[in-house]
Amino acid sequence: MAYKILLLAGDGVGVEIANSALRVAKFFQSNNILNIEIEEGLVGGSAIDQTGTPLPEETLRLAKQSDAILFGAVGGPKWDSLENKDRPEAGLLKLRSELDLFCNLRPATVLDGMADTSTLKTKLVDNLDLMIIRELTGGLYFGFPRGIFEKDDQQYGINTLRYNAREIERIAKASFEVALKRSSKLCSVDKANVLEVSQLWRDIFKKISSEYPTVELTNMYVDNAAMQLVREPKQFDVIVTENMFGDILSDLAAMLTGSIGMLPSASLNDSKQGLFEPVHGSAPDIAGQNCCNPIAMIMSLAMMFQYSFSEAKAAQMIGGSIRSVIKDGFCTKDIPIKDGKIIGTKELTNKIIEKLQGLYDER
Ligand code: NAD
């Protein structure tokens, strides 16, 4: 049976990087390495322009039928004046909640030869390989009551941080599974010294840990975790945390690696269906100039192969090709490798595909 991929390019650089990822996916298709079918759909600002809505019904239908979605980026100044609910980003949020994509994986990896593109000292980030897992469909961003209210001549802004036991259990299990496949070290980050939600979080993680006796579970308060990530990031292997803490910590971890153009992500549901996307946005400042970095998007495709399709070898081929291109000194301008050569988006994609071909021929 073919794996069904839905490609949603979106806006700005989303279109360029989607093209790069499509070419890489077609490499696997045309060489019969993977049996994949690729459909394309509209999302974000371009969907608003063509259909009046950021997530057309047809796109949602295709998404629900697919095994995995590869998502470029959405947004741009053209749509900034729209109300939040009508903006391009609303399309992505709706996709995440419609597909119940609760488990967000954000690796922060520093490839060989790239440590000096980080703002931290080389020895702190050299060969860093960290996985941040963020709960994506619960917590403060989704809790009710919420809103701005008026009472007794005073305005109140209210949001609610709420998790139920089932939501915590499923993210706990998913993170123990990820930790098992890595170095079996899991650090759960919370604020249990202040928040009751975090106390429940901690209790449930402890309970689930008895099902994973080989995984070492530690707990850390979120303020300390932020400090430790900058002080000694290599002490961590897998970090798991709730939605808002994860939003902040994963951006912090992203910056340890130097460029946002290198960072892929995966958002999975219970049936391993996933949405795979770079961490960055539509970068309107550089869109259409053939200079954006396609690596985050191509690595997102690799994560799709690994996590949704369990095709680890195909994922490793992509990782190996990217490492090899970087080792040869080729890069886009956001990752100026020492003594390297800056090339365009299309040209870097060509180099990655050449390396893939080389790996395939060597087999
Ligand atoms: P951004 O991530 O688009 O850009 C931030 C900076 O990083 C810019 O200087 C940009 O040039 C650079 N950058 C981003 N991707 C790059 C790449 N692949 N290669 C090289 N450099 C890259 O964030 P922003 O500027 O805050 O937002 C721009 C638009 O994207 C906004 O409309 C925002 O709402 C939207 N956005 C969308 C998503 C998404 O689709 N998931 C995520 C974040 C922001």
CATH class of the largest domain: Alpha Beta
User: What proportion strand?
Assistant: 15-25%
Bound compounds, each kind once, are: nicotinamide-adenine-dinucleotide
Within the CATH hierarchy, at the fold level, what is the topology of the largest domain? Answer: Isopropylmalate Dehydrogenase
Oligomer: single chain
Order of helices and strands: EHEHHEHEHEEEHEHEHEHEEHHEEH
Give the overall pLDDT as a whole number.
95
The total of beta strands comes to 14
Percent helix: 40-55%
Number of structurally distinct domains: 2
Rg calc: 20 Å
Low confidence ranges: none
User: Mind summarizing the main beta sheet?
Assistant: 10 strands, mixed
How would you sum up the global shape? globular
Q: Just name the CATH architecture of the largest domain.
A: 3-Layer(aba) Sandwich
Report on this model:
This protein has helices at 13-30, 44-51, 57-65, 88-98, 122-125, 165-181, 196-209, 222-231, 243-256, 295-308, 312-327, 345-362, and strands at residues 3-10, 36-41, 68-73, 103-109, 129-135, 143-151, 154-160, 185-190, 216-221, 238-241, 264-268, 274-278, 330-331, 341-342. The chain is globular and about 65 Å long. It contains twelve helices and 14 strands. Strand 8, helix 7 and strand 9 (216-221) form a beta-alpha-beta unit. A ten-stranded mixed beta sheet has the order 2-1-3-12-11-4-5-10-8-9, with helices on both faces. A two-stranded antiparallel sheet has the order 6-7. With 363 residues, the chain is an alpha/beta fold. The chain folds into two domains: 1-104 and 263-363, Isopropylmalate Dehydrogenase; 119-257, 3-Layer(aba) Sandwich (Isopropylmalate Dehydrogenase). The structure holds nicotinamide-adenine-dinucleotide (NAD). Nicotinamide-adenine-dinucleotide (NAD) binds at residues 13, 73-76, 89, 92, 260-261, 277, 280-286, 292-293, 296, 334.
